[in-house]
Write a structure and sequence with these properties.
Chain A: It is found in: Cell membrane; Membrane. Chain A: One of its GO terms (cellular component) is ATP-binding cassette (ABC) transporter complex. Chain A: It is a multi-pass membrane protein. The complex is a heterodimer of chains A (296) and B (278). Chain A is mostly helical. Helix content of chain A is 77%, strand content 0%. Chain A has one domain: ABC transporter involved in vitamin B12 uptake, BtuC, CATH 1.10.3470.10. In chain A, α4 (50-70) packs parallel to α6 (96-120), α12 (215-223) crosses α13 and α12 packs parallel to α14. The radius of gyration of chain A is 20 Å and the shape is globular. The relative contact order of chain A is 0.16. Helices cover 31% and strands 24% of the residues of chain B. Chain B has helices at 2-6, 50-58, 99-108, 119-131, 147-159, 177-194, 228-231, 234-241, 271-277, and strands spanning 12-21, 24-34, 39-44, 65-70, 82-85, 165-169, 197-201, 214-219, 222-226, 246-250, 253-257. In chain B, the strands form three sheets. Chain B has a six-stranded mixed sheet with strand order 5-6-7-3-8-9, with helices on both faces. Chain B is globular, with a radius of gyration of 19 Å. The chains are: A mainly alpha (296), B alpha/beta (278). Chains A and B meet through α3, α8, α9 and α13 of A and α3 and α5 of B.
Amino acid sequence: MLAADVWHDIFNFANYGELLALVRNSIIAGVVLGIVGGLIGVFVMMRDLPFAVHGISELSFAGASGALLLGVNVVAGSLAGSIIAAVLIGVLGSRARDRNSIIGVLMPFGLGLGVLFLALYKGRAANKFGLLTGQIVAVDTPQLSWLIVTGAVVLIGLLIVWRPLMFASSDPEQAAARGVPVRVLSLVFMLLLGMAVAISVQIVGALLVLSIVVTPAAAALRVARSPWLVPVLSVLFATLSLVGGILLALGGSLPISPYVTTISFAIYVACRIVDSRQGSRGWTSLRHLRPAARVG
Amino acid sequence: MLNHAKKPEPVLQFEDAAFGYDRRRLWGGLTMELRAGEFLAILGANGSGKTSLLRAVLGLHPLMSGIVRVVGAPPHQGSTEIGYVPQHRRIDTLTPLRARDVVGQGLDGHRWGIGRPDRARRRRIDEMLESVGARGFADRPIGLLSGGEQQRVRIAQALVADPKLLLCDEPLLSLDLNSQRTISGLVDRRRRTHDTAIVFVTHDINPVLPYVDRVLYLAGGRFRMGTVDEVMTSATLSDLYASPVEVVRSGGRVLVAGIPEGADPHHAPETAATLRAG
């Protein structure tokens, strides 16, 4: 009896068609974030920045809760917080050791600030919790346009710097010798990352950003090793987790984040299994995805 | 001006150049010219200023004083006249690049945008991979190749834009003997077929002994330049290190014994780290 209730909370597909119309905005937001998070995640992995992503998302949370308290646009507050964090980490932490300690210092400060703002906030409790663990179902139209514009800026920015950023991320010395402005690029990347994190905070919540910005790319890097197959798979995994999570969460009474993080984690586990089967060779082109040709 | 027009322009030229970091002078007084097809080996202790010299040629770090010219012009970052093989470092296994992508970076990795598939580009990369004997693993992920295979790919990356000068920073480090021979042979063949001038930084002259035209030996804030026979002698090295050093030539190899440990008063903390910091 109890188990059935819990099950009903988790999966419930009554009146699905009507509900679907209500979450149109959320699905659009999910796709936008899937593309942006999946792409930027590849560079986050190559540049060894998962911890930085977590640090940025806590400051983004502080910005968003500050905005909530002041009654101004939450996405704008979130953006301000994460851009400040990203620039600080980018400027002060060019070496890996410095970077980790700076993130370690910034992160609790951001989280504490956020908790303070939320404690002072007298509005709906759901808004508070949503910033930490996700609130996509609440995405309204003005918020959605903010998300789409920010997502478009990140996407266009990434496409412009793609080749030199790939070069600088895989071999910084050689890239510098070839005239790639390595330091400037690294700052530009942190800015784009800050924006991407701000979008993610709105959708999956500050605590779960890594499930979109890191897990899909990490999964893709397990099974593929080509410079175009990895981003494509990463985007696919991220979008699948988000849209799948939204659709599954629709009927139940739970937030979407547990669905998103579970799907994203399951994809990662599956990719690790595939990777161990193929002996770490990695798919380097689509040829390898066809079972008949899976030789080398 | 007329005098200059007669002889071909030197690929690399130093005039009374001095090298160092953070206003600390490592060594100076270098005047030399490197001509097309010439093979120069640079030897010396860690921190003796070898990397500093390479950085000056790449335009990543200014000289303390004096003049450096690459094909007649002051050096600048991103020059297509120079191919550069950085100090060997294992590439992470999860790098999403195949051998051919790494070579492609040498061609257009610095350009903006995502790049389009291009048949001519692909052919050029294939030819380059072929010429370093890397065609067989062109589509394998770079991170899964052996050290020697990775180094071939990096040589191909440095050469694919057809530079006039190839700078190699300890390209043989941590390679097995066989790979050392292969890599030095490849570099030598390039200068014979394409007249590329070579600057080859190494701590051991033996793998490149058959190919070297001149040696630049740095120690104790001073240098000696000349042929192997002139520089790699007990007298010259003893003088440079201000301490008795024994050089023995045996069976086509040069064996050096008695280099004082920490002899270099200008020993920099870590050359590789300084290079990366830029």
